[in-house]
Amino acid sequence: MSDFEEEFSSARNNNSDSPKLGRNRDYLWEHFTDIGQAKTGGHRKCHCKYCSSQFNYAKIILMYRHIAHECQAILQDNPQVRKEVIRRLLSLNNQEQSPEESTRKRLKRNTGSPSSTSSSSNSRQLQIDYFSARSIPLREKQEIDRSLLRAFIMCGMSFHTASNIFFKQFLNKLNSMYVPPDRMKLSRDLLIQETILVESKNDEMLNEAQHLTLNMDGWTDQAGHSLYEYNVVTETRKNVILALKDLSEFNHTATFLTDQLDNVLQRSSITSNIVKKIRAIVTDNPDVMKKMRETFISKLLHQHVLSLRCFGHAINLIACDVVKHSFSSKLLSKLSTVTTYFNQSHKFKAILKAEAKRTHVKKETFDSIGDTRWTTVADCLKSFILLRNPLETILCVHGEALPPKVLVVLKQKQLYREIDNLYCIMRVLAYAVGIIQANSATLADCYLILIYITRLMAKLTAQNDTKEFGRFVSKSGNIRLKEFQNDYYLVCFYLHPKYRGAGMLTKNREIVYRTLADIARKLEI
Questions:
Q1: What residues of the chain score a pLDDT lower than 70?
Q2: Which pLDDT value is given to residue 474?
Q3: CA–CA gap between residue 476 and residue 278 (Å, rounded)
Q4: Residues 227 and 185 in one domain
Q5: Same domain for 390 and 276
Q6: Do both 45 and 154 map to the same domain?
Q7: Edge-to-edge strand order for the sheet containing 212-220?
Q8: 430 contact partners, CB below 8 Å, separation of at least 6
């Protein structure tokens, strides 16, 4: 039995019926039914009273994980049980301490001062080889195990690495007294303990927050799974992830997604109802998500919530439309030919680097265009602009050695003119996404981006060589950004502390006052 299980099993339920000999059964057994002896002696089998999930081995840690994270039926039958289970486990984690700390505190309580041995050892400077083979106190080992778990998770490493002989040799060289946890303890005991601590910190942030912005996004991963992520942002710009769900087995209707969102909000906080603190809900804008927002806000307890479309998704859609245009697709196809050759040819890649260094150009290679990241288009275009002089020198000196397909592209007279025109719009879109993804972005920033993109589209339309392309970009932008031309963004723009206008027009003043009054009424301010 692990240290974590022993700590949790030591919690007694005074009201439970138990035999006179042995320990009383844990509090969690109130929510499980004993269904007999397991195959291995000393273990019992059980099933959950709420969802009838069966456990062939009734281990306390697995039973806790089921009640706290897996059982969906408990939210409808008795939602307070989950909160109570997590509270009890958190209190046990806070109370646990190492034997060395217990001894030290007991000596200090009895004598009024720490032991003389401890004082003398602390005053003596330790040698460096002391740390390589010293015994590790329990509390310190638990902290090391937690750090090891975080390293595995954040680096994307498999838990099987903990059983690798070379990894064990590495840890043994650091300290031969440290025994790392196996993959089963990492994936069960330690992972659940870390989940508890993270949930506790998240609950503290949610309790302290007064205003929350709810975000919901769905995507398909490389394995073809349909994933949905739910998070909230506090007024101090702290992000709290509420849930990450795999909904591949279900039809993604607006009603179903609304029910899933309600379930997430119901189990998101232990001590408070965060629905009352939500001020806005933000999603992308397919028809199903738009209808889901409308359904969510139409409920009685959610009518104070503002419905907002994700601005970043709209910029992504505009960029995708721009890249798919015939002007862009033909140009990018030509640039891909040059980029592929110079990045794969050892000779010309080295020549390009040498020429870039000679002319003091900071860029030395061409950026490739990624299929899944349109922002790489702006990077590729910028690399051609920076490397124009080195590339023209190579064309003059080593042009005969270049393949015909590359020569045809590089000898086009309008090549760099076309690159400048496309980069003009892609640079702004990439910059806009960078601003939106910043932690300090506001609706006023979105409004300023709207103004800038509109002016840029008008500039492209006015030029003769890009008139057709500019009209296409303008049409796409107007369609994608139409929903953002609402009063919320206008109000935030005028209320922004950096706004230094000459006052508001009468029409705009009426809009601002009316919108502020409507928001105040919804929030009951």
A1: 1-23, 75, 79, 89-133, 269-271, 371-372, 498-506, 525
A2: 85
A3: 32
A4: no
A5: no
A6: no
A7: 239-246, 226-234, 212-220, 278-283, 306-309
A8: 319, 375, 378, 379
Name the residue among 52, 55, 61, 65 with its Cα closest to residue 2.
61
Range of the domain at 143: 132-199
**224, exposed or middle or buried, with CB in 10 Å at 0-12, 13-18, 19+?**
exposed
Q: Which residues pair with 282 in a beta bridge?
A: 215, 308
Helix (H) or strand (E) holding 449: helix 443-462
pLDDT in the model for residue 93: 58
Whether 327 and 457 share a structural domain: yes
In a domain? residue 190: yes
**Which residues in 282-313 are b (16+ Cβ under 10 Å) and which e?**
bbbeeebbbebbebbbeeeebebbbebbbbbb
Q: How many domains does the chain have?
A: 4
**For the segment 345-401, what is each residue's pLDDT rounded down to a tens digit?**
999 999 999 999 998 988 889 998 876 677 788 999 999 999 999 999 999 998 888
Terminal-to-terminal C-alpha distance of the chain: 55
- 282 three-state secondary structure: strand
42: left (phi over 0), alpha (psi -120 to 50) or beta: left
Question: Do 446 and 343 fall within a single domain?
Answer: yes
- As separate numbers, helices (DSSP H) first and strands (DSSP E) second, the chain gives 24, 8
